[in-house]
Write a structure and sequence with these properties.
CATH class of the largest domain: Alpha Beta
Helix content: 25-40%
Shape: globular
Number of helices: 7
Number of domains: 2
Structural class: alpha+beta
Length: 236
Amino acid sequence: MNQLFLKMLETFQSDEFKAGAQLPAYGELATRFDASEDEIKRVISELIYEGVIERTRPEPKQEAQIPSYQLWGVLTGSHSITKEAKKRGLTPGVEIINWEKVVAWPSIGERLDLEVGKDEVQIMERLRSAESEPVGIETSYFPAKHYPGVTKDLFTGGGTGQSSFKVMEEKFGIKSARATDEVTVVCLEKREADYLQLAEGTPVLLRFRVTYSDKDIPVKASRAVWKFRAKWEMDL
């Protein structure tokens, strides 16, 4: 979440852009923000996943088929890809594809009760897999003040060593007690589509979660897109 992201976020949330307004072309945005078109495209993708802007990809198809998949229960309980994979006799895998520390921006500051522009956030983006097949991309946001000395190698172990909740509890004494979810559907941008080996524009489930400790302090946020079909059960 660099300065370009913050500048574009502020611009698109200003009175200059009303609801339903069409964004300028990449070239025009690149000139305006003194950036390359590739940098503009990357930020646009991030803003789409943040829910600030949207991209419409209407391509209805007539074909139908019998599903060749099982529903994964990743939207309830502790939301553990590791447990879901093992439940199906699959070997979970993980690859860290981004690791950076930045200052809190408005949306994450509000969710994690951080001071915008001052408190730091450790970002970890991981490609998750089962039997070497990519199944999702999860981006975790850790308030740096709660995780002194955190390093990415803590999250690359085998089996349950891949679980961020396990690391939180065993290394930093932070126990997760509850969480709140925001769930929607988005169309994959090119970068994420390439990682998940899907066509650009494929609709996927996006889940944003804020996890609270047993002291009711927000200790982690995460944004994830899932390649597989996920189920969500609610008691009414």
